[in-house]
Every structure is written in structure tokens, then in C-alpha cells.
Design a protein that fits this description.
InterPro entries: 2Fe-2S-bd (IPR002888), 2Fe-2S-bd_dom_sf (IPR036884), 2Fe-2S_ferredoxin-like_sf (IPR036010), 2Fe-2S_ferredoxin-type (IPR001041), 2Fe2S_fd_BS (IPR006058), Beta-grasp_dom_sf (IPR012675), Diverse_Oxidoreductases (IPR051452). The chain is α+β, with helices and mostly antiparallel strands. It has helices at residues 23-30, 86-93, 103-116, 122-129, 139-156; strands at 2-8, 11-17, 49-52, 55-58, 72-73. Strands 4-3-5 form a three-stranded antiparallel beta sheet, with helices on one face. Strands 1-2 form a two-stranded antiparallel ribbon. Helix 2 crosses helix 5.
């Protein structure tokens, strides 16, 4: 076991783990950040998506040893039930969640898009969100939620 210092949602955490332990397990088991979900364990569904240095990463595929000093952001870093972030509120308003299992990953994927491309086209939204799967079939609501959030941010003048 090795001690790793991870910056997660703006706070530094020390965790003792084996080098090949997936970041997802560290987030859920050590830090009790349960937003990211274990879906497939193969990097094919996106339910475990977090932002690693501002880029979407499937945390089931990222060994804790490669995180280093790069900041990690999880859905818990976007807002909470009483004060949801703009994107979270858009997902609520569009009723984008059915079972909700994929939503944390979807939110993180969409966050990366809107931070990089504040006014994405519908084609850009579709392409960027394509790695994340929703088995309930709420893809159209998810796309509307991302569009709503982009419009809200643009109206506020926030990138």
C-alpha cells in the first residue's frame, strides 16, 4: 500500500491504496463520494465519469497511482440538493433522470463540454455525450437539459 494525496472537489485527501486500485473505488469507499457509479467496470458506459484535470475520465479505468496532482471533480462538486448547480437544475427541470443511475456521469460529461464550449450546437452536444449510456432511454431529455444549461449560462454571461 502507498499513500496518495488526491485533490478532490477542491480538498486534499490522503488515502492508502494499492497502485492499481481504480479511482472509482477510492472515491466511493475511502472518500464516501458515491455520485459516480460502478456500471460496467470496463470504461464503456460512463456512469463513473468524473473530471480529471478538467477532462472527462471514466474513473473505473483510472488507477489511483496515475492521478498525481491533477484535480478530480465529482458530481458532489457541482452543487447539492438545496443549491444545485445550473446544469443540475437543468436536469431537474427537464426531468432528465428516470432511474438516475447514469446521471452523475452525464452531468460530469456535460460539465466538461460546457466549460470548453459554452454555446455548443446540438451536434456538438450529441457527439460529446455519446460515450455515456442511459439504459432508461432519457437521452432526449438529457440533451434538452444540456441545451437548457448552456442557454442559462449564456443569459448569465457565465462560461
Amino acid at each position: 500500500m502507498t499513500t496518495y494525496r488526491l485533490q478532490v472537489n477542491g480538498k486534499v485527501h490522503a488515502v492508502d491504496q494499492d497502485a492499481d486500485t481504480p479511482l472509482l473505488y477510492v472515491l466511493r469507499n475511502d472518500l464516501e463520494l458515491n455520485g459516480a457509479k460502478f456500471g460496467c467496470g470496463l470504461g464503456q458506459c460512463g456512469s463513473c465519469t468524473v473530471l480529471l484535470d478538467g477532462k472527462p475520465a471514466m474513473s473505473c479505468m483510472v488507477p489511483v497511482s496515475v492521478v498525481g496532482q491533477r484535480p478530480v471533480r465529482t458530481v458532489e462538486g457541482l452543487g447539492n440538493a438545496t443549491t444545485p448547480g445550473v446544469l443540475q437544475q437543468a436536469f431537474i427541470d427537464e426531468q432528465a433522470a428516470q432511474c438516475g443511475y447514469c446521471i452523475a456521469g452525464m452531468l460530469m460529461q456535460a460539465t466538461a463540454l460546457l466549460e470548453k464550449t459554452p454555446a455548443p450546437t446540438d451536434a456538438q452536444i450529441r457527439a460529446h455525450m455519446s460515450p455515456n449510456l442511459c439504459r432508461c432511454g432519457t437521452h432526449m431529455r438529457i440533451l434538452r437539459a444540456v441545451r437548457r444549461a448552456a442557454n442559462t449560462l449564456a443569459a448569465k454571461g457565465t462560461p
